[in-house]
Amino acid sequence: MTTPQAAAEPAVELRDVRKSFGKTEIIRGTSLAVKPGERVAIIGPNGAGKSTLFNLISGRFGPTSGEIRLRGERIDGKPPYEIARRGLARSFQVSNLFTRLSVFENVRCAVLYSMGYRYAFWRFLADLKDANERAEQVLKMIKLERRRDHLAMNLTYAEQRALEIGITIAGGADVVLLDEPTAGMSRSETGRFVELIREITVGKTLLTVEHDMGVVFGLADKIAVLVYGEVIAFDTPDAVRANARVQEAYLGSVLAQGH
Asked: In which band, very low, low, confident or very high, does the pLDDT at 259 lie, cut at 50, 70 and 90?
C-alpha cells in the first residue's frame, strides 16, 4: 500500500549527478526531479550530454558522483536489468529488434523476460497464457495487431519504431525513457507517432530526448534544457520558450533553423 510520503516522492530524481570520462566531464552537477505521471522532454545541442544522461538513469553508466533515485530509492550503480525490474524501461536511438522473428514474437520475448520466465526445453510457449495475453494486449496498444505475424524486418520504419516502443512498455514499466523516438520519420508519421506515445504513456512517467521542437512542445508537460552537461532550465514549454538564457544558448537558433 502506497503511503502519502511515498506518493510524494519524485518518479525520477537526480541529485548533483556528475559523469566524467577520464579528465572530460560530460555531466556537470545535474539535478532534476520528475513527478509521477509527468512527460518531460530533454533538449539541447549535440554533445550536450543527453544520451549520457539517459545512460546514467538506465544504468548503462554509473555516475562519477551524485545520486539517482527511482521513486525515492537509489538506483545509481545498479545494473540495467535490476533497474528494469524496478519499473524503468528505455528505448534507443537505433531500432534493436529481432528482425527474423514475427512482431508478436518480438513483443512476447520482452514479456517473458519481464515476467521472469527462463528457458526450459520442456515448456511450450503457446501454453504460457499470461505471457501470450499480455503480448496481444501490447500489440493492440501500439496498433500492430494486424501485422502480428509479419517478420519485424518487413515492417516500415515507423512500424519498427512502434514495435520497439511496444517492447519497451511490454513489462509494464511505469517510468519510460524514449531516446529520439521520431528520428527519421516524415512529418505525417511523426504526428501519428506522437499521438501513439501520448496514448500508451497515459498514467506513466515519460522522459524523452527529442530534437523536433514540434514534438517537444506538443508532447511535454515540462522541458529540461541541457547545455554542456548542465540543466540551464526546467519548466513548462511556454516558460522555456520565453527564457532568455535558453534562447541565447540553444532554442533561438533551433527555431530559426526550423523556420
From this structure: very low
